[in-house]
Recover the amino acids of this structure.
């Protein structure tokens, strides 16, 4: 079915390596059970520990190295001994920006077997398409008069016609391809009158090319409230970098928490590898205890397989995750259980195994 995929694996810090182990366990199992899945992994130990040892968080040719792969499976990065300026601005941001992963894709789906903390939390199933390369997360700006009473900080938001159009196009195309009815745009053009007005204009222009899909725009404050009061009404939400980031964590919370939320940083043209990672961070409070929920990471690996053209295997992983959650026998502490990270990974592997065996028997 394919000539083989080369995957760069970056486990990172904290719970990153613990949950990545489980995702690799699942991928290795699939490789064993499905001879048409030809996938190889190479692990890179770029992390805060690596930074403390080498003085840089990835080697000078790190980005060039990553370009040799078909995709990147990323765990999490963040450690109290190393500043965020290093972990974010010398690792995450360069990967996202230099590899032109300008779409951040985040499913917000209430899995079977999970309860939403919301009373009206049924049938939640939408995606957030977040602009991932510009917007509020630009390093344009500066500070003057450090420590003085007159100190000034300027942080520029970069919204471009092209960047917004590419993001909006991706959202509408996704909606069209997946039979969705509408795209919801997050804005704040009543108060942020330059950059967000351009965002609104461009999203509106793009929507004109998709007659079967409606566009609605909400101010971000109202939209945050609607995520809580009517979460089942969304199909595809498109947002700038900062708004999308905040909405994603809120989205995770309404469908059961960070341990269940995957994401993809996508270069839609395929000129560079895309990167798949859980929404959560390195969770230093539970790192090393073996109790992190690996589902977000395993689901991120499923998104990776879908992106690589194996929608069948991606769907198989998600169905198997749901089967384990429905059985309620294996649950990590974030879901109210006492199971370990590894027990959860193994249960998902067992469910995959059973499903594939059943399929083979059905075909006899
Ligand atoms: P970072 O600085 O790396 O972002 P953080 O602790 O600020 O770390 P997260 O890592 O996202 O942010 O964690 C937020 C909370 O969610 C923590 O209490 C953490 O234990 C919990 N959490 C995050 N991921 C998981 C997971 N996979 N399983 C269980 N709990 C998790």
């Amino acid at each position: 079915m394919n000539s083989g995929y080369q995957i760069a694996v970056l486990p990172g810090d904290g719970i990153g390596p613990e949950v990545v182990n489980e995702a690799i366990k699942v991928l290795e199992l699939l490789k064993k059970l499905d001879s048409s899945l030809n996938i190889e992994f190479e692990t890179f130990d770029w992390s805060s520990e690596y930074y403390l040892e080498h003085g840089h968080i990835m080697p000078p040719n790190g980005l060039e190295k990553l370009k040799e792969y078909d995709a990147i499976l990323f765990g999490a990065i963040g450690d109290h001994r190393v500043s965020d300026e290093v972990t974010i601005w010398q690792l995450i941001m360069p990967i996202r920006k230099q590899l032109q992963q300008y779409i951040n894709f985040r499913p917000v789906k209430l899995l079977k077997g999970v309860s939403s903390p919301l009373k009206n939390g049924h049938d939640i199933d939408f995606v957030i398409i977040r602009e991932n390369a510009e917007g509020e997360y630009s390093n344009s700006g500066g500070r003057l008069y450090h420590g003085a009473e007159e100190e000034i900080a300027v942080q520029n938001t970069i919204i471009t016609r092209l960047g917004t159009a590419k993001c909006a196009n991706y959202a509408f195309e996704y909606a069209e391809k997946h039979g969705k009815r509408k795209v919801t745009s997050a804005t704040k053009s009543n108060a942020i009158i330059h950059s967000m007005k351009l965002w609104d204009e461009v999203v509106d222009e793009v929507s004109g090319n998709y007659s079967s899909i409606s566009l609605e725009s909400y101010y971000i404050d109202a939209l945050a409230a609607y995520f809580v009061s009517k979460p089942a009404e969304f199909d595809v939400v498109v947002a700038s970098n900062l708004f999308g980031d905040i909405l994603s964590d809120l989205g995770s919370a309404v469908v059961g928490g960070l341990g269940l939320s995957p994401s993809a940083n996508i270069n839609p043209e395929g000129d560079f590898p895309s990167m798949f990672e859980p929404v959560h961070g390195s969770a230093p409070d539970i790192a090393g205890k073996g109790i992190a929920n690996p589902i977000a990471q395993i689901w991120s690996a499923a998104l990776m397989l879908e992106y690589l053209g194996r929608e069948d295997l991606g769907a198989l992983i998600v169905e198997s995750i749901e089967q384990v959650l429905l059985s309620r026998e294996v649950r990590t502490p974030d879901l109210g259980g006492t199971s370990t990270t590894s027990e959860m990974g193994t249960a998902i592997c067992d469910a995959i195994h059973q499903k594939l065996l059943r399929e083979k028997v059905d075909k006899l």
